[in-house]
Amino acid sequence: MRAIAPLALGLAASLATPAAAQVSDAWAVAPVVHRADPDTLAPQPDERGLDRALRLHVRFESHLPVEANGIDRAEDDDLFDFGLGGRLALEIPIAGLLSVGAEGEYTWWHYGTEISDDERNATMLSFGGFARIHALLGAVRLFAGAHLGGLVAWEDGEALRGFYAGPHAGMQVGGRWGYELVVGATLRTIRDQAALPNGALDPFASMGFFVLLEDPR
Amino acid sequence: MSRSLQLLVVLLLAAGCVRGERFRPRYEARRIVEAQLGCPEVEVSVVPRSPYRDEPLDDRRLDLVAWGCGHVARLRCSPFGTVGGACEADPTYEAPERPAAIVKVRGRYASLHGVAQRERIVIDGAEVVRHGGARAIAIPVSPGPARWEIETHPVHQRIEHYTTRSERRIGDRVYTRTELHERVVREPGVGCGQRFTLSPAPGAIYRVALDVQAPGHCEVYCAREVPTGAGVQLAACEGFGPAP
C-alpha cells in the first residue's frame, strides 16, 4: 500500500505493497449502494396542519327558532318560525392551521303569526367569505372562525339587500371525505325593515360533508 | 354589533391559545425547500436512515427527501430543534448514478479505546459515518479526482446525572420536588484524521486503510486490487496523493 505520512502529508514511497498479499476477510465486502431516488418515494402529507388541498363543503343549515323581527315580538305567537338553508363553500388551507374560503347559501324562511293565520315565507341568498383557525386533536379537527358577506332576501316579492357577519365554530372528522358540524351566529344588517332576523344575532346549527377536490399535499 | 365583535374576538383568542404545537419535520422541510427553490410544488418524504450513516453517537434526527421542480434536496431534521431551525442539509454520501469504481475503507487500530470507534469518511464534502469495525466498507464512487478525508474518534460513554425540580402549590403551601435522573451520554474522544486525493480509474477497486497507532497518530494507506485467477493481488494506488 502507498501511505501518506501523518505529518509530512507527502506521498511516501510505495511502502508495504505486498505483491501477492492474501485477501483477508476484512476486505471481502460487497459495495454499499444507496441513493434516495424520488421516483421510488411516496410523497407524505405534512404531519401537522391541514391537508393542503382545496375542499368543497356541502352543508344543511337550520336556524331555530327564528324570532322574526317586527312580526312575532309583540304578539303571543306560537307559530314555529324557522329557517332552512343549503350552503356550498370552497375552503383552502393557507397555513398550517389557517384556512380561508368562499361560500354561498340559499335559505328559506318560514315565519308568521298563527293567530291571524298569516304564515309567510321568504328566501335569501348570501355570498361571502370566511376564515378559520384549526386545532388538530388526533382524528378530530376543531375550528373557530368568522364569516362575512352580503345578502339579498325576497320578502313578499320585495328584494332586500344587506350584509352579514358572525362567528362560528365546529368540528370535522374524516379524510378525503369528511363530516362537519358547525354552530354559530349571524348578525344581519338589512337596510329596510325586514321580517328576517335583522340587527340581532341569529344562531344556527349545521351539518354537512366536505370532500377534498385535489390530492392532499 | 359590538357584542358580536366581542364574541368573535374571544373565540379567536381562545382558538389562538390552543396548544399542541409539535415538531413537524415534513412541514418544516417542505417550507424550507419551497423557499430555497422558489418552487411551490415540493413533495416530502421521510426516508430510512442511509446505510452510509451508521452513527455510533446519539443521533435522533430524521432523514427527509424533498423534491420538486426538477430538484432533489435531502435534509436532516432534529426533533428537538426550534421551529424553523430544526432542519439542515443532509451531507450524507449518496452513491453516484453511474459508479465507476469501488473504494474499500477501513480503520486499523493498534489498540481500541472507548465503547466504539466512529469513522467518518468525507468524499468531496459528502460524508459516510460508520462504526469502525473489523470489516471495511465498500463505497461506489465516480471517476475522476476527489478530495477525501478519513477521521476516526473513539466513542466514550458515561453516565450523566442531572436533577429536575418541580413545584406544586396546594393552598398557601408550596411543595418542591427534586428528582435525580441519569442518562447515558456518548462523546467522541481524541481522534485522528488524514486528507488525500484519489482519482479512481474506471472499473478499479481500491483499498484505503487508516492505521491508528495511538490517539492522534495515524497514517493512511492505499492499494489497488488486481484480480488474478487465484484471488486478488495488491498493486500500487495510482491517482492517490496528498490533499492540495
Secondary structure: elements and pairs:
The complex is a heterodimer of chains A (217) and B (244).
Chain A: E1 2-4, E2 55-63, E3 82-93, E4 98-113, E5 118-137, E6 140-155, E7 158-174, E8 177-190, E9 201-212
Antiparallel strand pairs in A: 2-3, 2-9, 3-4, 4-5, 5-6, 6-7, 7-8, 8-9
Chain B: H1 2-16, H2 25-37, E1 43-47, E2 62-68, E3 71-77, E4 87-89, E5 101-109, E6 116-123, E7 126-131, E8 137-141, E9 146-170, E10 173-188, E11 192-198, E12 205-214, E13 217-228, E14 231-235, E15 240-242
Parallel strand pairs in B: 5-12
Antiparallel strand pairs in B: 1-2, 2-3, 3-4, 5-8, 6-7, 6-9, 9-10, 9-11, 11-15, 12-13, 13-14
Keywords:
heterodimer, A: 217 residues, mainly beta, Porin, eight-stranded antiparallel β-barrel, 9 strands, 0% helix, rod-shaped, B: 244 residues, six-stranded antiparallel β-sheet, five-stranded mixed β-sheet, 15 strands, flat
Tell me what the structure shows.
The complex is a heterodimer of chains A (217) and B (244). By secondary structure, chain A is an all-beta fold. Chain A has a single domain, classed as Porin, CATH 2.40.160.20. In chain A, 0% of the residues lie in helices and 55% in strands. An eight-stranded antiparallel β-barrel of chain A has the order 2-3-4-5-6-7-8-9. About 9% of the residues of chain A have low confidence. Chain B is mainly beta and 244 residues long. Chain B folds into two domains: 91 residues, no CATH class; 152 residues, no CATH class. Helix content of chain B is 11%, strand content 52%. In chain B, the strands form three sheets. In chain B, strands 6, 7, 9, 10, 11 and 15 form a six-stranded antiparallel beta sheet that branches. Chain B has a five-stranded mixed beta sheet with strand order 8-5-12-13-14, with no helix packed on it. The longest helix of chain B is centred in the N-terminal third of the chain and has 15 residues. At the A-B interface, strand 1, strand 5, strand 6, strand 7 and strand 8 of A face helix 1, helix 2, strand 1, strand 5 and strand 8 of B.
